[in-house]
Amino acid sequence: MSVKYQNGQAVCVQEHKPIAFNPWKHHCGFVCNQIQLIRGEGGINLDHFLGYIGGTLLDFYIGELPVYTIVNEVNKYFMDLGVANVDDFKHWLGLPEVTFKNIYLSDGSRWVMRLGQNDEYYIHIHPGRYSKLTIRCRPTTLKVAIAFRYLFGFEEECFEIDKVNYARKFAGLPPVESLNSASALQNFISNLRVNNR
Predict the structure, then answer these.
(1) How far, in Å, CA of 170 to CA of 148, rounded?
(2) According to the model, what pLDDT value does residue 4 have?
(3) N or C: the chain end with fewer CB closer than 10 Å?
């Protein structure tokens, strides 16, 4: 899947207009497949992609719907409502009083709709907080989990302090003194599996 990085945040592709969605930050299947691709190709700077994972807390979709299905379902939802441009979308949101609304997709997951950063990609989406098929984590946890899987593969389940700190260093983070402080990472990393989503 080709991606376009816009404004250092949203990941957008031409055929997904007007949807702005960052699958590096919010989609487990996409992340796993990209790690697998990058590990196979070699020479690609993973730091470039980790730079697009920011914020304080994020919601990470672990369901089965691929990115293109999510985008298509959101697009269809708004087409069926007759929302065809940024002004229609602002009206649907209820701006300026309301800044986001939720919709549900075919698998029951809840997704947040916000105003995008420009008129080209004006529907910014991400999984809803504590939604079905969604887990909440810190961006640093996701970055280290991605680095861990990139460095050691998807079969590695040996969670040792040296490996954790190597992954943290790779992700540009300081080491931890014990695995007690990495329990969130240990719980989260089991979600990163090779799949076809």
Answers:
(1) 9
(2) 52
(3) N
Q: For residue 3, what are the CA distances in angstroms to 10, 21, 152, 197?
A: 10, 10, 25, 16
Side chain identity at residue 50, one-letter code: L
Nearest-angstrom CA–CA distance, 171 and 165: 10
Rounded (10°) CA dihedral 148, 152, 154, 155? -130
Write out pLDDT tens, residues 129-164: 999 999 999 999 999 999 999 999 988 778 899 999
Instruction: Fill in the amino acid letter for 131.
Output: S
Sign of the dihedral defined by the CA atoms of residues 149, 152, 157, 163, in that order = negative
pTM: 0.88
pLDDT tens digits along 16-48: 889 999 999 999 999 999 898 888 776 567 777
Determine the Cα–Cα distance for residues 24 and 29; give it in Å rounded to an integer.
10
Task: Evaluate whether 153 touches 184 at the Cβ level (below 8 Å).
Answer: no
Half-sphere exposure of 65 (CA within 13 A, CB side): 24
State the Rg of the chain over Cα: 17
- Please name which of 64, 30, 82 lies closest in space to residue 134, comparing C-alpha atoms: 64
DSSP-derived letter for residue 193 is: -
For residue 42, give every residue at least 6 positions away whose Cβ sits within 8 Å of its Cβ, in sequence order, or none: none
Sign of CA dihedral 163, 168, 172, 175: negative
